[in-house]
Amino acid sequence: MNYVLYAVPVFFLLIGLELLADRWRGVRTYRTADAINSLSAGVLSTTCGLLTKTVGVLTYTLAWQHLGLLAPDPASPWTWVAAFVFYDFCYYWNHRLGHERNVLWAAHSVHHQSEEYNLSTALRQTSTGFIFGWIFYLPMALAGIPPLVFLTVAAMNLLYQFWVHTRHVPKLGPLEWVFITPSNHRVHHAQNPVYMDRNYGGVFILWDRLFGTFQEELDEEPVVFGVTTPLASWNPLWANLQFYAQLWQDAARARSWWDRLRIWFMRTGWRPADVAERYPLTKPDLARFRKYEVPLSPARTAYAALQFTLYLLGGSYLLAKGDGMG
Prior knowledge:
Blueprint: H1 3-25, H2 32-67, H3 77-100, H4 102-108, H5 119-122, H6 130-133, H7 138-142, H8 147-162, H9 182-188, H10 206-211, H11 236-253, H12 257-262, H13 273-278, H14 298-325
Helix pairs in contact: 1-8, 2-11, 2-14, 3-4, 3-8, 4-11
């Protein structure tokens, strides 16, 4: 069963409530084009997942069947608790390396490209994370966690992460010490230097505190959302290809074959010295930061909304059919 699919109506209900909260509080955390772009990236991700999720599930199942070292009882609640915590630990490292290595950031950067932070941002997901993501969860297969348990706790982890993508919830006192909250996840989506590459947990912030990647949200440092190389587009397909294209271009321009190979696996932002010298990249000055905006007439806005609605309905139909076949 695809638990995330059945949660979609709840997601849209909560997005509607957040829009009402915006109106009630007199703030603006949504822009129509940005929200449609985020939701379109989400629909693209989930529809692509109909074809790509087999990679992770099949690999995990084969590893569990042939390499599993233990045989935990799936009927025991302790198996589920341990699997839930273990999954978040693996997620932490998947997420952290997704920020720290060029080729992994090329996939994960999609989720961070929005310059807004709201519940629609939570649904902004990559379509290429399946390429390497499965590797980080193989330890669970080796520990003998059954595939059904693995898939269920993975869905629970993902569902939890939805609600933390909001600016309307302040710090939550003692919960900030244990769990990922809206406050410490806002930090994670920031491009401010003090906040970058922090707070990687999915459910628990304990891993960040343990491994030195925790950063508290500071009153004196308002969060600026987005990435340091702006997408500057509302195209969800280009959102998935942008950083791959940059890496490919830099690799092609490099004089050294070694640089052409290693650029993909170097720390995020690394570029061959000769390429960086000949083709420097400018980073935005946050003091002068302006969100990407393309003025649209009411007619074009209505057309985009209609197109997205049809796109959403088509994607939902495919997901429902795919879940029925599964």
